[in-house]
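Note to self: keep these together.
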Amino acid sequence: MAYSAYLITDESRIMLLNHFPPRFTEVIAHHITFRFPDSAPPPAVEEALVVGHRFDTERGIECLVVELDGESARPNGGTFHITFSLDRDRGAKPVHSNTILKSGWERLKTSISIKVEPKLVSTS
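Structure:
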């Protein structure tokens, strides 16, 4: 099985980690899912901006909201995001970012430009 995503460049990942010290023990900060499952890479984007932040201490998960070419809504109705950090000892899984974003998120005062690469990612 595979999914389409925008991989975060190493340079952008380091910059985000410096800007947002991870709240939980396992740092992900790897990609922005476009569609799951999928059989082709996502379309190229001109601009990727981190525009929001959300964490849930009880569930042990943290994510960053992203706008791709001005849109934060994913094709499936969710929100484009980066699962940033989590605590698996609290039962957190990357997919839980989708759940916590449904109840809202905090918009950043200043958006942060990041570089991403469209890819088809295999889960096997």
